[in-house]
Amino acid sequence: MSDRLGLGTLGRIPEASRPRITPGDAGAGIVHLGLGAFFRAHQAVYTEDAMAAGGGDWGIVGVGPRSAKVIDDLRAQDGLYSVTTLAAEGRSTRVIGAIAGLRHAAADPAAVVALLADPAIKIVTLTVTEKAYRLDPATGRLLLDDDLRGDLETDRDPRTVPGLLIRGLAARRRADGGPIALVSCDNLPSNGHRLRGLVDYLATATGHSDWVAGNVTFPGTMVDRIVPASTAETLAVAAGELGVRDEAAVHGEPYMQWVIEDDFPAGRPAWEQAGAVLAGDPRPWELLKLRTLNGVHSAIAYLGAVAGRETIYSALEIPGLVTAMRRFIAEDIAPSFDPPPGITVVEYGDQVLHRFANPAIGHRTVQVAMDGSQKLPQRLLHAILDRRRAGGIPRWGALAVAAWMRYVRGTTDDGRPLPLDDPLADRIRQRLATAAPTPAGTVDALLGLDTVFAPELAGDETVRQLLVDWLTELDKHGVEATLAGVR
Ligand code: CS2
Questions:
Q1: CB 424 within 8 Å of CB 449
Q2: Which of 23, 273, 373, 410 has its CA 20 to 30 Å from the CA of residue 203?
Q3: In terms of DSSP bridges, do strands 216-217 and 180-184 run parallel, antiparallel, or are they unpaired?
Q4: Measured at the alpha carbon of residue 469, what is the angle toward residues 463 and 473, in degrees to the nearest 5?
Q5: What is the Å distance from ligand 1's center to 226 Cα?
């Protein structure tokens, strides 16, 4: 099939799959940083539905911070791409027409800075992954490395996301561009507060703090939809459904949720008409989602990958794993925080396990396993710490962390290599290389990663012993035999 999705071929695709707005009709009102699959299957869909229901100039200018591939693919398709929803009982595909423009930050940062200064732009949303915030995961403090320092102290082109934001805000101030909301849609706890802290720091360092305080808001959000990385099969399915090729196709589960703090000084799309929840304080939702969904996801990913399972779905078939995760949710996660009113963590957790068990979603364990050093604190370690402060013994949380420790050693139980895709990969490897070749040696070496394990946790003898015990089990018997013993 050679014809490609685009404005010229839109009339040929099945009517039910066409965009719910007329592409190009709405002016641009949002800049989005990070054009990964998650954004394309989540915020862009909500925004298109909000425009279809409530109108407004909320077209999205998509900015790719690094990779040019997705920009090129989307440009070749006039910004159009499809989302296939994968349900156990069947699938459906729709084309999204909400992208009103595209920029490549690495190639043309000045264009992005100009965009952020444009008064028509009223909202900036971000999905740039945990590591782009340059915050120390253990303490939440800013990591001022050479790239970021250069963004602040010189006038060369900005190289980091925070650098791009602060240059853009400074230009907006000069251009009198008016107030704007910066919205983190990454899986970080208190993501709005964190982004505010980061931008405040940069604004103070560059003399813009008063303007930022008076003109910029940082609504917090909880975002949720399982969106595995696209594969050749994703593209083949999209082409089959549409009758034209779509090189930017994405796919995801049927479930989606977006809880947004309603703090937009220059207006916003009618996201509530698209099913989003506009809330006062989204933090209880963030804790619920990070600790329950993402914490359990990571636990399954590490255990499953070490057991040699390709996907989350196939990992769930390991006897004892679901029981262990249910106990993890009930005994360690649920008592660690207060959920939003009307929500029971155990019921939410059951729903999450049901979503993970969707056979149509081929979410790879190694994809969820990546960037563990950035994910562990908010997903697993904060709950463990809260349980310890309350005098609890977080046995199952420790199993999840021990599985990460086993995973980063780099082989499955039957000796096949596992990738270590993590910004701290070198430090992790160095520490393991000089550690004593015993479970305790591994545990002590990794607990010494101070940007992952806060001192209170690293110095907790009970936690250390739990980790050594689990890692001893995992080393001696492997994941499957360890889990088979779980009742
Ligand atoms: C996953 C998440 O890759 C991962 O680390 O845990 O991306 C997860 O699928 C989403 O947060 C679900 O909303």
A1: yes
A2: 373
A3: parallel
A4: 145
A5: 6
Residue 149 CB neighbours (<10 A): 13
3-state secondary structure of 285: helix
CA 146 – CA 139 distance, rounded (Å): 20
Kindly state if the Cβ of 224 falls inside 6 Å of ligand 1.
yes
pLDDT tens digits, residue range 135-145? 887 777 888 88
CA-proximal residue: ligand 1, atom 6 (nearest): 294
Query: What is the dihedral sign for C-alpha 301, 307, 311, 316?
Result: negative
Q: Distance between CA atoms of 38 and 127, rounded to whole angstroms?
A: 8
Q: In angstroms, rounded to a whole number, what is the distance separating the alpha carbons of residues 246 and 13? A: 12
Residue with the two structure tokens 């990460």: 404
Give the ipTM of the model, two decimals please.
0.98
> Which residue matches tokens 């939440």?
140
pLDDT value at 29 more than 90: yes
pTM listed for this prediction:
0.96
Give residue limits of the domains in the chain. Answer: 7-280, 284-484
- Token duo for residue 409: 């050693």
Dihedral over alpha carbons 410, 413, 414, 420 (to 10 degrees):
-20
Residue whose CA is at the smallest distance from ligand 1 atom 8 = 226
Write out the CATH class of domain 7-280.
Answer: alpha beta
Architecture field, domain 284-484: Orthogonal Bundle (1.10)
Burial of 424 (0-12, 13-18, 19+ CB in 10 A): buried
